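Re: that backbone. Tokens:
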């Protein structure tokens, strides 16, 4: 009984480490509506501009 418990605990610990090793996604998605100037809005060329957009770009640059 003790051996089976040890094997089960070792298997559980091994499975827990697999989930941690797979979290390596390099995409950061930030959503904004683009309807609240000066925080975020659409420019004439269709690009999002504003304070929130600038902060998001700065965060992405810092994370690189």
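Recovered sequence:
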């Amino acid at each position: 009984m003790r051996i089976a418990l040890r094997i089960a605990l070792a298997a559980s610990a091994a499975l827990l480490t697999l989930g941690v090793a797979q979290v390596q996604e390099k995409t950061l998605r930030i959503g904004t509506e683009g309807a609240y100037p000066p925080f975020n809005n659409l420019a004439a060329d269709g690009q999002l501009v504003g304070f929130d957009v600038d902060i998001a770009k700065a965060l992405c640059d810092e994370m690189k």
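The radius of gyration is 23 Å. The chain has a mean pLDDT of 85.
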